[in-house]
Amino acid sequence: MKSTWKDLFADQSGAVGATVAVLMVAFLAMGSLVMDYGHMAWVQNELKTAADAGALAGARVLAPYTGTPKTPNWVAGQNMATQTVLLNAADAQPLTDCNVDYGYWSLVTGTLQSPGIIPTSKDLPAVRVTVAKAPGQNYGPLRMYLAPIFGISARDLSAQAVGVISGPYSIPANSAFPMALPKSAADQWNQEPYPDVYIGSAYHDPEGGQWTSFLIDANNVPTIRDLIDNGNPTPLKVGDNIWIEPGTKTNLYEYAASKIGQAVVVPIVETDFSTHNYTPILGFASFFIEEASGGDDKYIKGHFVRVDPQADEQGAGGGPLFGYFIPAAKLVN
Question: What is the pLDDT of residue 68?
Fold first, then answer.
């Protein structure tokens, strides 16, 4: 029987084999993407987890400061970050190496600066950790399963994290104790053993501090007693001017005894501040109250501590570091 043009074009007997071949290549490519790139994402996340853990652990031990003049404990931060990273694994293999840098993280430029700079309130002590699977690092690049069919046999992977410590730039309402301390006293926060600090009129200038009614001028006992109980009525930040008044009322010191055994947040001001006057806040510190006396020598005795007495991450970081960390360590990238 003679074939017609219609019969010729209707003959699809060889199309199935060609279609199957094309689909097999497509399925193979899709399998490569699902298997290899899913595996790659998993290992990348493992590297990031290790970098995050190392950066946070390293930042937490930058204090107490060491040396003369006192600076962050860079060596302790580097060692702790490295040790923490090596406790982790990636691609079912223990991590064997990482790169740890340290210095001051600039909140302005988002870069790590030299540890030798003179830091400002916008430069935070930091540890930067980089963990990679690459030639010569952690058993080399990540090997692919099916991607070599398409000429991709391995991929370099890396993850980076930066951990910083900082003091609060601002604090929320109801979190500060109504005593202002001079910077000369607050600079002792990183010493061990902790030196005793006396706050009160009998010990004023430069060792101690004075009562403050925060943002308002209120020279009266009821106001200060309320502030002892409830803290600052409105948020405070570095640069705010607070009112300083002399602590001459015996019952205020006796009333402050309710805080013995507690860590409180206090604003830090210039060393040469004067009473019956406004002075700017330089930063905030954590102060542990040991004693409070309303006798002839009216005073509050305590020492600075390197913890957040609020036990959470209130406030906004970026202020001077006086031992009150918000938070104790945080990731910035």
Answer: 79
Closest CA to 82 of 140, 131, 124, 116: 131
CB 315 within 8 A of CB 328: no
Confidence at residue 294, expressed as pLDDT on a 0 to 100 scale: 80
Using alpha carbons only, what angle is made at residue 137 by residues 134 and 140, rounded to the nearest 5 degrees?
A: 50
pLDDT of res. 323: 77
Distance CA 305, CA 299 (A): 19
Phi, psi of 228 (to 5 degrees): -60, -40
Measured in whole angstroms, the distance separating CA 54 from the mean position of its chain's CA atoms is 13
Q: What is the pLDDT of residue 187?
A: 82
**Residue whose C-alpha is closest to residue 321's, from 129, 174, 165, 211:** 165
Cis peptide before 327 (omega within 30 of 0): yes
Q: Using the structure block, give the residue that is written with the tokens 């990540």.
A: 142
pLDDT of residue 26: 55
Assigned token pair, 257: 């005894």
CA–CA distances in Å: residue 202 to residues 76, 117, 255, 292, 298: 40, 39, 17, 13, 6
For CA atoms 321, 323, 327, 329, the dihedral sign is positive
Name the residue among 331, 40, 38, 332 with its Cα closest to residue 158.
Answer: 40
Query: Among 89, 52, 116, 59, which residue's Cα sits nearest to residue 333?
Result: 52
pTM, rounded to two decimals? 0.69
Phi, psi of 79 (to 5 degrees): -65, -45
How confident is the model at residue 8, as a pLDDT? 47
Sheet holding 197-199, edge to edge: 197-199, 299-304, 283-293, 263-269, 179-182, 210-212, 241-245, 277-280
Contacts of 34 (CB under 8 A, 6+ apart): none
Determine the pLDDT at residue 138: 97
**Which regions in the chain score pLDDT beneath 70?**
1-34, 146-151, 201-207, 247-248, 307-316, 326-329
